[in-house]
Design brief:
965 residues; alpha+beta; 30 helices; calcium; EC 3.2.1.-; Glycosyl_Hydrolase_47; disulfide bond; glycosidase
Length: 965
């Protein structure tokens, strides 16, 4: 029977839909007209309108909107952008990486904004992103300003720059003889080739990245990994002077004045990188040009005033990443408790030279305090004499919190007497309360039994009560460190502590809760009538002053390589720069070198038995002995030059032999690869002694495949597991097949196919879950078993109870069997079959071939080359110290290999894998390519009095500072 009330919602919906269609159905013409009238001009690209959605016509505002906006009427002085080079630049260049990196602004994470000058240059020069710069141009740049120091050094406590006549220092450079005309011509030809490579890279930077940090030499774009202060320009100033490119030098010096060190799109200033590249570059250019260009020193002081602010900490240790924005810099800060050792230990040469040039003792005071801290910590490390790669420079040691185990325990009353005083309810449970299987009432919290101490001894009782659980061996389970049990008072049923020690207020019926705090103090929430509440706030731990400390609780790493290198390098160089008048730099160097020779330097096992040395890593745990990692890294290759210079100035002739072998090790590392270029890092098998080492192929193969036995053992264990699984699966499958065969009598179907009909047992099992449902469906169907029809469900329709029609009638033929099913034949389970591992020989040969391992190398940990200078640096030192032409020959091979595989149209690029025959270019050219690598190659073939080691000290970025006389 059709009931109208049932369909009322549908009728309402239809009426509304008809009204909507009638109202808006004829408005398409109006939309199209409105859309057409709003087009700005007929010349606009129609393709942009094809896919645009029409917008409904809106009412036009006829009254003029007149608002007063003070900011719009305020006049502001326009900023003049820096002069743009007249060199033609491409208009479609985009930065290789974002010029607006996401950085930390004060205490939040916000994208840094560019200055207006950079925005104008980015749009006009085509090197910035217009959509980004247009948005950022409305925000003026933030500028650094000098803040009042929170921890100033009293004038009487400033460590003064050492003065006085320098001590006599032994000669470093070899005394060279006059060269022949043929040798001179060959040297000058090579010199010109090196200069030509530098000029190509400099021109590429000048044309495509002049106002940025670095050039992307493949694409002709730019990168700003530092502070957008033209890192390559400042870094290459002294190289321009040394190569005689005076016109380019003067142009770059003028461009230095355009650098604004008080603002940057980067929120933090990396202290180490900024000091060695920018501050060192400015000071060296000033020294080299005979102090003619005063603006170089002025800009160096401007930068140093910003950097010195990073030292405003309680212990005057610097923040190695200085957040310079005033709103953050004005606050009090500490140095980090985890800093890279080289980043704090490699500032001395630059700040000392600046103090010498300006007469400002505060620059020397800043680094002298670091030296004192290093000296104090040198003998307290896990490897006395050296420093770990990570340091805690905060000067703050937080006392260890007192754990509950450290608090003396008071012996409570005997267990029996304590239990009998617990005022639990004794009456019978109500009808709604649950009982345990033993007839006891369940308590609200099921806590384990407490550890009970005997009054006379304070030793935990091990005699279980009747209700306590026992282990399978009959011992009582003893909880480890649990608080006092919670018991329930008869009058309030609120948790309480041990009744034997509860306060009197609780015994009187007061509501009191004792809570265990993290610092093992009791915070009692008392009734307001008794006393005011006691504060539950935890006390702030106090700092205990300390010097440098290790920041690793597990393993400390000791190395001359990355994260440590220049700290050791600067010890003899600072001694030279101070004229030898401060003895601590010599003693610290000699102490560290002794430990290096005993623990880090090793001879690699090689097929041809080359007599070379590497300097590896030593990983030292808190307890126990350290483990040598037989690595040779490109960053460690500076050590040959350091050993050689230390051997000369400190009269250590045995160290000169080590210096030669360390440098030869890096030359070998170049010659071993397909490109003739050394990888970033690789591993070898170390010899037991540096005196001699025979090639052992078995040991070499074990170095490549140290897990051969473990691999075989793992396979055998997997096969045993596989056999057990196969046996179990086979048994199961046979049982299932037997049951299947017994339960499937065969019958012919009308089509002649053999079908397995369900047996009565199977039908009964299948019907068990469906029979009741089927009978219910039959009973509810019209015309079938009407005498069994049950009352139908009621449905609520708009507040009325409606009789619902029953479920649909199932379609069924008369005479058809109620159920007929076909059993599925069981399938054998899928079981993982272990793969047969490669043999030791197969694995090793595959590794050598696939990883392109040079003979003697067991692993290439880092395959790239980013135009690093450390190897050629030591080659140059060895040539200047020994005068052996062998080093020039080795250096020329290195240069040719680098130029062949890294040259691009605009400069030279880092490569991805030196073991390839044709490596891929990474489109990155670090500023040290011009500041260091090409400078060392050029100095190797220049006349020996250019940057003589007896007159100059080079910082770790190859910037030469004049030694005092």
């Amino acid at each position: 029977m059709l009931r109208f009330r049932r369909f009322r919602p549908l009728v309402v919906f239809v009426v509304i839909a008809l009204i909507v269609v009638y109202q808006f159905g004829g408005s398409s013409t109006t939309w199209r007209t409105s859309s057409t009238e709003q087009r700005p001009s007929e010349k606009e690209d129609t393709a942009a309108l094809v896919h645009s959605k029409p917008r409904p016509q809106v009412a036009q505002q006829t009254k003029k909107l007149d608002l007063e906006v003070p900011a719009a009427t305020r006049t502001q002085a326009q900023k003049t952008p820096p002069a743009i080079s007249s060199v033609k630049r491409p208009v479609d260049k985009t930065p290789a990486s974002s010029t607006t990196p996401v950085s930390r602004v004060d205490e939040g994470i916000l994208p840094a904004s560019s200055s207006d000058a950079e925005l104008v240059e980015g749009i006009e020069g085509g090197q910035g992103r217009v959509e980004v710069t247009a948005l950022a141009s409305s925000t003026p740049p933030v500028h650094w300003s000098k803040q009042s120091e929170h921890y100033p050094v009293p004038s009487r406590s400033i460590i003064k720059l050492p003065t006085g006549k320098p001590k006599p220092i032994p000669k470093i450079q070899h005394t060279f003889k006059t060269e022949s005309p043929a040798a001179k011509k060959d040297r000058e030809d090579k010199l010109n080739v090196i200069k030509g490579v530098f000029r190509r890279s400099w021109d590429g930077y000048r044309e495509y990245a002049w106002q940025h940090d670095e050039l992307s030499p493949v694409s002709g774009k730019f990168r700003d990994p530092f502070a957008s202060w033209r890192a390559t320009l400042v870094d290459a100033l002294d190289t321009l002077w040394i190569m005689g490119m005076k016109k380019e030098f003067e142009e770059a010096v003028k461009a230095v004045d355009e650098i604004d060190f008080t603002t940057s799109p980067r929120a933090d200033i990396p202290l180490f990188e900024t000091t060695i590249r920018y501050l060192g570059g400015l000071i060296a250019a000033y020294d080299l040009s005979d102090r003619k260009y005063k603006n170089l020193l002025t800009k160096a002081v401007e930068l140093a005033e910003i950097l010195i602010s990073a030292f405003d900490t309680p212990n005057r240790m610097p923040q190695t990443y200085y957040y310079w924005r005033p709103s953050f810099a004005s606050q009090s800060h500490r140095a980090s408790n985890r800093i890279v050792m080289a980043e704090v230990g490699s500032l001395s040469v630059e700040f000392t030279r600046l103090a010498q040039l300006t007469g400002e003792d505060k620059y020397y005071d800043a680094i002298a305090r670091i030296t004192d801290a290093l000296e104090e910590f040198q003998d307290k490390t896990r490897l006395p004499g050296m420093w770990p790669t990570y340091l805690d420079a905060s000067g703050c040691r937080v006392p260890e919190p007192i754990s509950p185990a450290d608090v003396p325990l008071q012996a409570p009353l005997d267990r029996a007497s304590a239990v009998k005083d617990i005022p639990l309810k004794a009456e019978d449970p109500t009808s709604t309360e649950k009982l345990s299987p033993e007839g006891n009432r369940y308590t609200p919290l099921a806590l384990p039994d407490p550890i009970v101490f005997k009054a006379e001894t304070g030793i935990p009782s091990l005699i279980p009560s009747p209700t306590e659980k026992l282990s399978p061996e009959g011992n009582k389970y003893t909880p480890l460190a649990l608080p006092d049990p919670i018991v329930f008072k008869a009058d309030t049923e609120l948790p309480s502590s041990n009744p034997a020690t509860e306060p009197a207020a609780t015994k009187k019926g007061a509501t009191t809760l004792q809570k265990r705090q993290l610092d093992d103090t009791e915070a009692v929430i008392q009734d307001s009538d008794e006393a005011p509440p006691i504060s539950t706030a935890l006390p702030t731990p106090e700092c205990k002053e300390q010097g440098f400390a290790s920041s690793n609780s597990g393993m400390d790493e000791y190395t001359l390589g990355g994260m440590s290198d220049s700290t050791y390098e600067y010890l003899p160089k600072e001694w030279l720069l101070l004229g030898g008048v401060v003895d601590k730099y010599r003693s610290m160097y000699e102490k560290s070198i002794k430990v290096v020779k005993e623990n880090l330097i090793f001879r690699p096992m090689l097929p041809k038995g080359e007599d070379i040395l590497f300097s590896g890593k030593l990983n030292v745990p808190q307890t126990g002995t350290g483990k040598l990692e037989a690595e040779n890294a490109h960053l460690t290759c500076f050590a040959g030059g350091m050993f050689g210079m230390g051997a000369k100035i400190y009269d250590r002739p045995e160290d000169l032999d080590i210096a030669k072998k360390l440098t030869e090790g890096c030359v070998w590392s170049y010659d071993m690869t397909n490109t003739g270029i050394m990888p970033e890092a690789f591993h070898v098998v170390p010899c037991e002694s540096t005196k001699g080492c025979e090639w052992n192929e078995t040991e070499y193969w074990e170095g490549i495949d140290p897990n051969a036995e473990a691999r075989v053992t793992s396979y055998e264990r997997q096969m045993l597991n596989f056999r057990e699984q196969m046996a179990a699966a086979s048994t199961w499958y046979e049982e299932q097949m037997a049951a299947y065969a017994a339960a499937t009598p065969l019958s012919k179907t009308a089509a002649g196919e053999i079908t397995a009909l369900a047996t009565p047992t199977a039908v009964a099992e299948l019907e068990s879950g469906m029979e009741k449902r089927k009978r219910q469906l039959d009973a509810d169907s019209d015309g079938v078993a009407t005498q069994q029809k049950t009352p139908s469900r009621n449905l609520m329709v708009e507040g009325e109870m409606e009789e619902a029609e029953g479920p649909p009638t199932p379609v069924q033929s008369e005479g058809e069997a109620p159920f007929e099913t076909t059993l599925t034949k069981p399938e054998f389970p899928a079981i993982y079959t272990p793969s047969v591992p490669l043999t030791h020989e197969q694995y090793v040969k595959n590794r050598i071939q696939e990883d392109r391992l040079p003979p003697g190398v067991v692993n290439v940990a880092a395959r790239g080359y980013i135009l690093r200078p450390e190897a050629i640096e030591s080659v140059w030192y060895m040539y200047r110290i020994t005068g052996d032409a062998h080093w020039r020959e080795a250096g020329w091979r290195m240069f040719q290999a680098i130029e062949q595989h890294t040259a691009t149209v605009y400069g030279n690029s880092a490569i991805d894998d030196v073991t390839k025959t044709s490596p891929d270019l990474n489109d990155e050219m670090e500023s040290f390519w011009l500041a260091e690598t090409l400078k060392y190659f050029y100095l190797l073939f220049s006349e020996e009095d250019v940057i003589s080691l007896d007159e100059w000290v080079l910082n770790t970025e190859a910037h030469p500072f004049r030694r005092p006389t």
